[in-house]
Amino acid sequence: MIDSFSLVSIVYLVIVIGLISLFVVSFSLFIRRLLINSSLKNNHSIEIDKKLDKIIELLEKDKKD
Protein backbone atom coordinates (compact mmCIF):
# COMPACT_ATOMS: atom_id res chain seq x y z
CA MET A 1 0.00 0.00 0.00
CA ILE A 2 2.80 2.42 0.85
CA ASP A 3 4.57 1.48 -2.38
CA SER A 4 1.57 2.51 -4.49
CA PHE A 5 1.50 5.96 -2.84
CA SER A 6 5.22 6.28 -3.43
CA LEU A 7 4.83 5.32 -7.08
CA VAL A 8 1.98 7.82 -7.55
CA SER A 9 4.08 10.54 -5.92
CA ILE A 10 7.03 9.79 -8.20
CA VAL A 11 4.82 9.85 -11.31
CA TYR A 12 3.23 13.12 -10.18
CA LEU A 13 6.67 14.63 -9.51
CA VAL A 14 7.94 13.59 -12.95
CA ILE A 15 4.87 15.12 -14.63
CA VAL A 16 5.24 18.40 -12.72
CA ILE A 17 8.97 18.66 -13.49
CA GLY A 18 8.26 17.86 -17.15
CA LEU A 19 5.62 20.58 -17.37
CA ILE A 20 7.89 23.13 -15.70
CA SER A 21 10.75 22.33 -18.05
CA LEU A 22 8.37 22.47 -21.05
CA PHE A 23 7.23 25.93 -19.93
CA VAL A 24 10.83 27.16 -19.56
CA VAL A 25 11.82 25.87 -23.01
CA SER A 26 8.69 27.31 -24.66
CA PHE A 27 9.15 30.69 -22.99
CA SER A 28 12.82 30.91 -23.96
CA LEU A 29 12.00 30.02 -27.59
CA PHE A 30 9.23 32.64 -27.60
CA ILE A 31 11.60 35.34 -26.32
CA ARG A 32 14.26 34.28 -28.85
CA ARG A 33 11.78 34.49 -31.74
CA LEU A 34 10.59 37.88 -30.49
CA LEU A 35 14.15 39.22 -30.44
CA ILE A 36 14.92 37.83 -33.92
CA ASN A 37 11.77 39.41 -35.39
CA SER A 38 12.57 42.72 -33.71
CA SER A 39 16.07 42.68 -35.18
CA LEU A 40 14.73 41.92 -38.67
CA LYS A 41 12.21 44.74 -38.45
CA ASN A 42 14.94 47.11 -37.32
CA ASN A 43 17.18 46.13 -40.25
CA HIS A 44 14.27 46.52 -42.66
CA SER A 45 13.55 49.98 -41.26
CA ILE A 46 17.19 51.02 -41.72
CA GLU A 47 17.11 49.85 -45.35
CA ILE A 48 13.94 51.83 -46.02
CA ASP A 49 15.51 54.93 -44.47
CA LYS A 50 18.53 54.58 -46.75
CA LYS A 51 16.32 54.24 -49.82
CA LEU A 52 14.27 57.28 -48.84
CA ASP A 53 17.44 59.30 -48.31
CA LYS A 54 18.59 58.28 -51.79
CA ILE A 55 15.24 59.31 -53.29
CA ILE A 56 15.32 62.67 -51.51
CA GLU A 57 18.88 63.22 -52.69
CA LEU A 58 17.91 62.45 -56.29
CA LEU A 59 14.86 64.73 -56.10
CA GLU A 60 16.94 67.58 -54.71
CA LYS A 61 19.54 67.05 -57.44
CA ASP A 62 16.78 67.05 -60.09
CA LYS A 63 15.25 70.18 -58.59
CA LYS A 64 18.58 72.05 -58.79
CA ASP A 65 19.04 71.12 -62.46
As a percent range, the share of strand residues is under 5%
The percent range for helix content is over 70%
How would you state the average pLDDT, rounded?
92
SSE ordering: H
How big is the Rg?
Answer: 28 Å
How many β-strand stretches?
Answer: 0
Largest sheet features:
none
Quote the distance from N terminus to C terminus: 97 Å
Write down the overall geometry: rod-shaped
Uncertain ranges: none
- Derived from helix and strand composition plus strand pairing, the structural class reads mainly alpha
Description:
It contains one helix and no strands. By secondary structure, it is an all-alpha fold.
Topology:
Elements: H1 2-64
Summarize the structure.
97% of the residues lie in helices and 0% in strands.
Keywords:
about 60 residues; mainly alpha; 1 helix; about 0% strand; rod-shaped
